[in-house]
Amino acid sequence: TSANDLVGLGVLGTLFSLMFSVMIYQVIILRRQRHKLRYMALTDALTRVYNRNGMDEQVDIYIRKYPNEPCVSVMMDIDDFKNINDTYGHHYGDKVLKDFAKDMKDTFNVNSIIGRNGGDEFCMILKNCTLKTASDLIKRFSEHKRRFTVEGKEYPYSISIGFAEASTKDINRSRLFKKADIALYDVKAHGKCGCQEYQEKS
Length: 202
What we know:
Blueprint: H1 2-42, H2 52-65, E1 70-78, H3 81-88, H4 90-108, E2 112-118, E3 121-127, H5 131-142, E4 146-150, E5 153-157, E6 159-167, H6 173-189, E7 194-197
């Protein structure tokens, strides 16, 4: 009887161990799925930078976590992007967007928050820096030679950038980008490409 009891206890122990292992595995799978769903909810599927929701969340976190910190806000878009789509097709337009986003990440990924507002418009926060330290890098980025290839032939494209120094002190997300958006609008309004720092109107 004692031997049977020991065997029974051993079987129960094995079953309990298996059940516990299955539960742990299910918890791990659920966490991975939750993480994947959250990533998908906050990331632009095409370019792999933050989408509007993800950008809003990250900027709000940054403002709360680092009050009184200087930063540079940046707005940018691809010049005549509609013409690229209309002339060569959305496949090539998507390729341009992906290549442009990769260039942004390669250039600014350290200490930055990068997002796609939609269409060909992107935004970015360069954290804990001023125009003095960031403007040269932004201007060099605007001068990168950009091309896309259609059936073996290369076509150039350009971008426009507006940027401004800001601070997380007493500021919200929309105000953080307002000056950079005005600078980008000025670039477009004058039919120029390249980049422009925000200038106070006299």
